[in-house]
Amino acid sequence: MKRRLATTAAIALLACSAPSRAAPPAALQDPALPAQLASQAPLAEPSRGAALQAQVMAKLARQFQQADTQRRGALSLAEAQAAGFGYAAQHFEQMASVNAAGQREIRLSDLQAFVRRQQSR
Asked: Are 40 and 70 in contact (CB under 8 A)?
């Protein structure tokens, strides 16, 4: 009995002193993050500088094109609001110019110039 106990104790001691081969601890997770998002691979490193500005301009161009349902290359305030293009609608008066028909509108170039001015502040 003593020999069996000594053998068991020796095995337990060796197991405790051997390097652990257990999986590394899981990274801490945000408890507010839905489980389906927590299991996804981490996102890429956030963009900065010129890369971020290019992404912003591309997104604005896509939103502008989606809002420009008449394909005139210009948006009225009503078109921007109807498309849910809040940024353009919110700053419309600061960007708008008067077209040949006397209506206020913004073009993509007006929107891009406004964003650049805001970023340079």
From this structure: no
DSSP string, 38-81: HTSPPPPPPP-HHHHHHHHHHHHHHHHHHH-TT-SSEE-HHHHH
- In a domain? residue 102: yes
**Domain carrying residue 114:** 49-119
Of 2 and 109, the one with more pLDDT: 109
Give domain status of residue 90, yes or no: yes
Segment 39-49 shows an average pLDDT of: 75
Q: At 31, phi and psi to the nearest 5?
A: -65, -20
CA distances from residue 8 to 12, 32, 112 in whole angstroms, order as listed = 6, 45, 75
3-state helix, strand, coil in the chain (%, to 5): 55, 5, 40
Tokens of 52: 């971020």
Q: What percent of the chain has pLDDT over 70?
A: 73
pLDDT score at 104: 92
In a domain? residue 94: yes
Residue in the structure block whose two tokens are 């600061």: 94
